[in-house]
Amino acid sequence: MLQNGFRAALVQCLVGKDRLKNLENASNLIHKAKSNGAQLVALPECFNSPYGTKFFDEYAESIPDGPTSKMLSEAAKKHSIYIIGGTFPERDDNKLYNTCTVWNPNGDLIAKFRKMHLFDIDIPGGITFKESDILCSGRDLVTFEMFGVTVGLGICYDLRFEELAKLYRIKGCKLLVYPGAFNMTTGPLHWELLQRSRALDNQLYVFAISPARGEHGYIAWGHSQVTDPWGKVVAQAKHGEEIIYSDLDFTECDKVRAQIPIFDQRRTDIYDTVCKI
Ligand SMILES: NC(=O)CC(=O)C(=O)O
């Protein structure tokens, strides 16, 4: 255990159409990350299925009953680590969600976050995507504790919404984790910039974990990334299958917060960010 934090591994796995192969591959990469000292392993958005509205229904599982939950729970327990299980389509009460699950070293499900802002965009000549054709959006901010640190969850498009990140900062988070699959249109300009912005605005670590870039269907940008509370990119993957590691030191959050105290300097007498839950 590091003195002021822990070692994290971001697993940028390649995802195909075969659910069981996807699970086996993720499980092998989790094993590898643990062998390299990871205490937290994080997976990408839609790691058990291709990313696309036509796939969500077919690959959806109820949580924690399906094979994807089972693999994540068993891997967390076997390796005695925390796992942020990327996302997979969740079925609940005949509705579908894009959902992130978190598992503790006993294999228990300790958090579940449903994508709050659905990815509905239309860039002519670039990309058109409408998650809301099939998915419902989540309504809850979700945090959990690990090694004394409060962690907040978001998924991909949620990264674009500063209000969500600010609410997590207000709730005491020092790490925000976004499994995400940006694409070849938005990825080059926005992926790194958005993560650095959320990290700098809120003076916390940000993780974003992408699938590796495939050749068919929705092409993910890749470049999974760790950004520190100063807004510096401290680890970044290329676009293929890869694991990146980062030794986190949460005293960096305390330092930047003390040295540049923007949180206490906010003019909440003029404006405010209100958490309604
Ligand atoms: N896939 C997403 O949810 C978001 C994305 O690709 C983008 O915001 O760009």
TrEMBL record:
Keywords: Hydrolase. CDD domains: nit. Its EC number is 3.5.1.3. PROSITE patterns: CN_HYDROLASE (PS50263). Residues 6-250 form the CN hydrolase domain. One of its GO terms (biological process) is oxaloacetate metabolic process. It catalyses: 2-oxoglutaramate + H2O = 2-oxoglutarate + NH4(+); 2-oxosuccinamate + H2O = oxaloacetate + NH4(+). The keyword Hydrolase applies. The keyword Hydrolase applies. GO terms for molecular function: omega-amidase activity. Belongs to the carbon-nitrogen hydrolase superfamily. NIT1/NIT2 family. This is omega-amidase. It comes from Tribolium castaneum (Red flour beetle).
